[in-house]
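Subject: design request, 462 residues
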């Protein structure tokens, strides 16, 4: 039985467990004098049975599939002929990949030897045995849990307390998993970045003015400089992000103020959804728009004024990116402005303030933490954008603050360095992790500064 079919059966068993637990509660209550004798409602008894049916089985299912591939591969390798098992690790890995491709039905180059075919058959047999054992184990656990909980249902069973405790444990586990995932990502990036800094000095990376991470594979290879000065990349990121924020923050904030304070309900119900449609447009569409419409328009306008404008420029990417992130500012700002109590507005107007004074002196200070959060989200979105920059700003790492020149960003360089088959011992590939680590540190510093500013203004307001 495939894992997908097993999940569907487990879902049906969970629904059946809920129905049996709830029905058992009704049966117990009817024989004991009515539903009032139950400590918890029948719904909680059904939920308790469903949770005990699904959660332990899903845990076993997840761990089994996580380790199944490695265990089956080791068992398959142990059954290979001696002359294949003693091959070097890289050669053995290629043979294992061919065996897996053969099992999955993919095309394998060259003739298939009898030993490889036998190994593929063995691998498939082990995989089927593993799936069968997993199916039996999971279904047995689920059915046993259903009947166990069903036998425990009685008028005094505190089903609601048990359900709430289980839900709390699940929420804590999900939060812990999210935290460990974040820590794992940071540690993995940090490990690869340390390997990079063992080859390229940190001072050269942070203070160098030339970015050209082309490493020579042969001694006679030309066109490989191996320069890893990241200042041009960081400068391009800040330039495009600054242009985008100059577009998004004023328009988004003013749109939010108008929609929340001046517009009537009919106009608001039409304008806000239309404005939020911008957030749903794929970034590749924005990239095409920037490359085919905005960039030529800027180049033609600059030529008419006698300016030297590149066909791909930071200004084109920044303007289109700013339009893309307007909803992130306007929508969140509109929500937090609407959350300001109406009594504050009425009090300010009653003291003689004008409408504009009420907005600037009362509403905006009260909504400042939410507005700063929306702006931070927009900044993060601008820093992490890739497609628009690739299509409208180019890939050249030029150290310039001229918005009419071609620049690149950190995320574009990360994608460029990791595209295709790469050797992870090369400084060219490891440079992507160093860029990612620096981007993480800069984002963390910006968040800390924003929290300090928000706390300061909140204390002044309170």
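Subject: RE: design request

Done. Sequence follows.
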């Amino acid at each position: 039985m495939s894992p997908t079919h097993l999940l569907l059966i487990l879902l049906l068993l969970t629904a059946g467990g809920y129905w049996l637990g709830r029905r058992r509660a009704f049966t117990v209550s009817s024989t004991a004098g009515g539903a009032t004798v139950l400590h918890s409602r029948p719904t909680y008894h059904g939920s308790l049975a469903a949770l005990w049916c699904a959660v332990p089985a899903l845990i076993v299912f997840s761990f089994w599939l996580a380790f199944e591939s490695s265990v089956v591969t080791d068992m398959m390798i142990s059954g290979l002929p001696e002359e294949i098992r003693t091959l070097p690790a890289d050669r053995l890995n290629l043979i294992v990949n061919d065996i897996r491709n053969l099992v999955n039905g993919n095309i394998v180059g060259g003739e298939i030897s009898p030993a490889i075919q036998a190994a593929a058959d063995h691998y498939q047999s082990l995989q089927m045995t593993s799936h069968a054992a997993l199916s039996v184990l999971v279904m047995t656990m689920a059915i046993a849990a259903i009947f166990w909980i069903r036998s425990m249902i009685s008028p005094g069973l505190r089903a609601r307390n048990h359900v709430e405790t289980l839900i709390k444990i699940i929420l804590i586990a999900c939060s812990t998993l999210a935290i460990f995932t974040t820590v794992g990502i940071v540690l993995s990036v940090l490990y690869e970045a340390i390997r990079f800094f063992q080859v390229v000095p940190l001072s050269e990376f942070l203070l160098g003015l030339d970015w050209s991470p082309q490493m020579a594979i042969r001694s006679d290879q030309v066109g490989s400089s191996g320069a890893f000065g990241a200042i041009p990349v960081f400068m391009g990121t800040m330039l495009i992000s600054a242009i985008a924020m100059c577009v998004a923050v004023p328009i988004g904030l003013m749109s939010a103020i108008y929609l929340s304070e001046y517009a009537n309900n009919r106009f608001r119900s039409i304008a806000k959804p239309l404005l939020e449609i911008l957030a749903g447009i794929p970034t590749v569409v924005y990239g095409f728009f920037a490359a085919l419409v905005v960039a030529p328009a800027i180049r033609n306008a600059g030529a008419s004024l006698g300016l030297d404008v590149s066909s791909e420029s930071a200004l084109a990417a920044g303007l289109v990116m700013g339009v893309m992130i307007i909803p992130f500012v306007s929508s969140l700002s509109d929500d937090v402005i609407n959350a300001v109590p109406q009594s504050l507005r009425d009090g300010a107007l009653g003291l003689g303030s004008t409408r504009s004074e009420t907005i600037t002196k009362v509403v905006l200070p009260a909504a400042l933490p939410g507005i700063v959060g929306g702006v931070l989200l927009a900044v993060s979105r601008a820093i992490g954008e890739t497609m628009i920059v690739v299509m409208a700003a180019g890939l050249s790492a030029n150290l310039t603050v001229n918005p009419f020149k071609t620049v690149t960003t950190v995320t574009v360089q990360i994608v460029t360095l990791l595209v295709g088959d790469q050797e992870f011992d090369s400084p060219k590939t490891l440079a992507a992790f160093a860029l990612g680590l620096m981007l993480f540190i800069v984002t963390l510093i910006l968040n800390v500064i924003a929290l300090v500013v928000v706390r300061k203004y909140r204390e002044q307001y309170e």
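The chain has two domains: 3-165, 227-461.
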